[in-house]
What does this fold into?
Amino acid sequence: MTRLLIVGGSDAGISAGLRAREVAPDVEATLVVADAYPNYSICGIPYHLSGEVPDWRSLAHRSQADLEAAGLELLLCHTARQIDPAARKLTVIDPNGAEMTLAYDTLVVATGATPLRPPIAGLDSLSAAEGVHLLHTMDDTFAMADTLTRRPAERAVIVGAGYIGMEMADALSLRGLAVTVVEALPQVLPTVDPELAALVEAALAGHGVEVVTDTTVTEIRHTGRELHVSGAGGFARSADLVLVVVGVRPDTTLATAAGATIGARGALAVDRRMRTNLPGVYAAGDCVHTYHRVLDADTYLPLGTTAHKQGRVAGENAVGGERTFAGSLGTQVVKIFDLAIARTGLRHHEAAAAGLAPRTVPVTVDDHKAYYPGAQSVHVRITGDTETGRLLGVQMLGAIATGVAKRIDTAAVALYHHMSVEEISDLDLSYTPPLGSPWDVLQAAVQAWA
Amino acid sequence: MTRLLIVGGSDAGISAGLRAREVAPDVEATLVVADAYPNYSICGIPYHLSGEVPDWRSLAHRSQADLEAAGLELLLCHTARQIDPAARKLTVIDPNGAEMTLAYDTLVVATGATPLRPPIAGLDSLSAAEGVHLLHTMDDTFAMADTLTRRPAERAVIVGAGYIGMEMADALSLRGLAVTVVEALPQVLPTVDPELAALVEAALAGHGVEVVTDTTVTEIRHTGRELHVSGAGGFARSADLVLVVVGVRPDTTLATAAGATIGARGALAVDRRMRTNLPGVYAAGDCVHTYHRVLDADTYLPLGTTAHKQGRVAGENAVGGERTFAGSLGTQVVKIFDLAIARTGLRHHEAAAAGLAPRTVPVTVDDHKAYYPGAQSVHVRITGDTETGRLLGVQMLGAIATGVAKRIDTAAVALYHHMSVEEISDLDLSYTPPLGSPWDVLQAAVQAWA
It folds into this structure.
């Protein structure tokens, strides 16, 4: 019987544990979870804070009882302190501060990521008590919910216009707050091209969100009842709540202290079996680098979907399996008000940086036959390789009802199989006039590229 | 310079012409079109008759002027009478009844399909004048619109519960008619499994449509102002309008008279270059059999999407190209009231008939994370091969908003690449809680199959 230890109770850790028990029902699988909230949907936090999901307990993918019924032993509120890879032992601190040592045959490190703290004067000395928040854990969520309800906050400044910043702008607006988003880069949602970001900015403005780009926040001050946020170019806003969401970095401390190698962009190095360089130690999720299937190289792409898949591979291999991680395409979608914005594969500059010869073509296509009522535009950007003809990446933006979130998946499967741009037209996709066109949006777009 | 003749002005014919002009801009491309409505969206007819598309002219994919601007010469209201393959000549009858002969270097036969006329007593002697309709052409559409507006009709009986029957039940209900659908088979929508058809029947009932299955209509009588429809088991209904839509058969008369070989299910035999056995004669669309990519064999699948693709291949090859038709998966979707019902690939009995070892598993999955408001069920049926593990087919049913129409495309691309059921879990699909789950609907379903 194998003794499997897993550090981390989020997507990667839970997936590893469940998969290990699935393929090896006699494995002893113990999860060391830093807080009391195993298997919570971190991606769901904005919808609790918006009020759309009133009970935070709903955010659990599975209940603790379900996890235990699946045969996972949970050590909640236990902090993993040290790995001894030679002795195959893990030291943990229990909720009372006592140290204990756990033996393992195999270990999965799923320590996730931690939010970046940008160099803003005042940020380190201010906290949730004054209405200054970072947002990554359920405890962060409770603190922010408290600021929203107890004070209550009326004006919010969100520092950072990435996915979480955008979702929180939507969430806090829905809740009735006046929201300003400040972003150091020239555009919101830097994961898509500026042309699409401009449409997002227009939607934000349409919903009353103030967007300030090209502006680095330099200071947050708390003066009596208010917060004052100031930055480059004379930026100055007062607020009751400041949310700093400028990205994450992999949490690698535990593993690197034990000698684990660092790979792409500061994340733990793993092979496609999710093995670290330490014997018997696997790692998965936001703490590791990610094999990118189009790049055929490692990068850093902390996404829940990837964490699930990597965790599943790590868990299976930790009990003797031989599964290979197929790779990520960076497929992602975000809902911002009524819009869905999605991407998969490489953007132009990413392809160029990898030595490819990309061409990117913008195309706007109706989501269904124009004669049927309610047709709306889908904005597509197709990136292909001019030398090989290979599809490299697709970005899409449209109203939620245009099905962008699922249309991007068609492109993702095509990328998975390294299809050429031209061959996309050969795909047999569904059609009925109220829901599509004989040449689907993606096909119409690739035909424009060709 | 090549002289290309095309017989047929619907999806396959137009696609052939446009593609030929695209790859060989100097080709002389002439289309012989039997009516005055080239490039009309036949699939859109129900939405004109429902009143949702008030102007029938909107149903044109392209205007006549657009087609001519693309370099296509159109001979409208010309009937192709005879092919002389040895002399490479086509005889046509012009609108005045005069015969003329056209020379060609290559010919594309895109004569489409004709509606089946089941052996119902009275059907041949009754016509649109009495409110008895078949529905395939624009002229059929005008006749039916006339019945709907001039009489006006209040009660309709639809004979046949396939795609068109279902869409017309939706359309005529929307228009305020009381609708009865009669089907000889034990279920509506025989293109999907009975379990899904039962959900469609419930939706029809919920919208006040009467569904009578297992009942063959045997007679239609016209008595004064009313029509009487009677059938097996004492079935008898009065109506102002009877629509007979029980399927189509390939219209092969022109080509077979010239010596063309018949292939699968009575359709013209073509190879994957869309060549018939006649020198210089290609054929495409609803008149030909279709290479099925999962079956790796020819079958008959008259679908607009396929007609477009086959026409494109035929047109390119008719001017010297060497394109191969990639094959159909039978991907299709239909909207019936608020439901979308989709399928791709093989159903259980089709796979079994082909000598495969199918297993079909039903799974019901939420379209997005249950905690986010508005989650709805998607009913999925996964058919896989128990011997090879290969995915064979997927059926899905859900509310339109669940994205079934595009989710099926993910499965279609997977089938295109002959993926195994298990490998579907490796696909990097998009996720955000309001629009999906970390394991997408299709992935959750295939995991249940495995």
Remarks:
- The radius of gyration of chain B is 23 Å.
- The longest strand of chain B covers residues 358-366.
